Amino acid sequence: MKHSPNRRRLLLAGGLLPLLKPLAARAAGQRVLIVGGGWGGLAAAAELRRVAPQLDIVLLDRQPAFVSFALSNRWLLDPAAGGDIQRHAYADIAAARGYRFLQTEVLG
């Protein structure tokens, strides 16, 4: 498995690089639940699918869709300026990336 220098630095900073090779080797039959979508959950699911295709990956979120605000987020966006609000169904993203989505709420 080869990582770009930028990705390698990011994974090293997060302490994750040493975990990826062992994860790929023992992934068969294992399930990973990612609680919460958004940018982080979507990125985690996509990267796990890439490095360990044998994993059963399930993304959990209480919303049916991911909402993104172009060039900003809703707290920084000037409502008078408009802004592109984009909705992307988690189920569609999951199907395209090869993992599962479950709309649910995690309470504990």
Structure description:
With 108 residues, this protein is of the alpha/beta class. The protein contains four helices and five strands, in the order ααβαβββαβ. It has helices spanning 5-13, 17-25, 38-51, 90-97, and strands at residues 31-35, 56-61, 65-69, 85-89, 100-103. The chain has a three-stranded parallel β-sheet with strand order 1-2-5. Strands 3-4 form a two-stranded antiparallel ribbon. α3 links the parallel β1 and β2 (56-61). The relative contact order is 0.16.
Short description:
This protein has 108 residues and is of the alpha/beta class. Helix content is 37%, strand content 23%. The strands form two sheets. A three-stranded parallel β-sheet has the order 1-2-5. A two-stranded antiparallel ribbon has the order 3-4.
Fraction of helical residues: 25-40%
Taking the alpha carbons of the first and last residues, their distance comes to 35 Å
Q: Could you state the order of secondary-structure elements as H and E?
A: HHEHEEEHE
Molecular shape = globular
Strand content: 15-25%
User: Which strand order spans the largest sheet, edge to edge or round the barrel?
Assistant: 1-2-5
Q: What about the largest sheet? A: 3 strands, parallel
Radius of gyration: 16 Å
Which stretches are poorly predicted, pLDDT < 50 over at least 5 residues?
none
Q: How many β strands by DSSP?
A: 5
Secondary structure tally, helices: 4
| Helix/sheet category | alpha/beta
Average pLDDT level: 78
